[in-house]
Amino acid sequence: MRVARLFFLVSISFVLSVSIAAQQTATSSPQALQLLQRSLSALAGGQTLTDVTLSGTARRIAGSDDDTGTAVLKALTAGASRMDLTLSSGQRSEIRNLSAETPAGAWSGPDGISHAMAYHNLLTEPAWFSPAIAITRGLSSSGVVATYIGQGSRNSASVQHVALYQPSFSSADVAPLLQHLTQIDLYLDSSTLLPAAMTFAIHPDNNALLDISVEVRFTDYRAVNAAQVPFHVQQYINNCLYLDLQLQSATFNTGLSASTFSVQ
User: Fold this and answer.
1) Is residue 18 part of a domain?
2) Tell me: the pLDDT tens digits for 122-160?
3) CA pair distance 25, 154, nearest whole angstrom
4) In a domain, 17, yes or no
């Protein structure tokens, strides 16, 4: 009994030491925060952003399917997003809501049947299509760590590379996995600091350890009421173009209702 109790106390001490060490080391780098703040200043034009609504045309390529139609995308800085596509093959929707008491997400296709998203696929940025909302959330969320990776090249452009992730203060085994599941990488144009690309990983519903790479490219920035909005957004999955969005309008701070992002 004494041996078992001693082993338990040693185990608890080890977990606590890992937790304390993680909290001591998981801090944002000043250079990363400065770059993100300057990028947000260029994106938001001095405004405090709470929500965004984007609309335009869409092309979706998935295997032999090549559909075109229209798209409406909405997001909250609190951590929720909704994408509704009206395509030649039918309606497609995707909702992610991390602001609810229990984070949830769902998608549906032309048959209208709702499919729940695996929890590990809800951990990256919901508003992947709006860099202004994504960076606002990253800078305002408690516990998010920003690190400066360095200057480099992305899609033939000179960029500043910054990573954002949520650290874990549990165990040495869990911490790297949570960091990986929550990490997004932002590539800021070296001249304007406007985001040129965002990358992250998604995973099969039954395997959080298998990565499927996602890259979102932002081009054709235009001024919208002092804010800068990329009117051309492309999403690549495993290096293949999956979604091509050409925006026609963008509005901020319209007071989107939380019910817009409710998951049935």
Assistant:
1) no
2) 999 999 999 999 999 999 988 899 999 999 999 999 999
3) 29
4) no
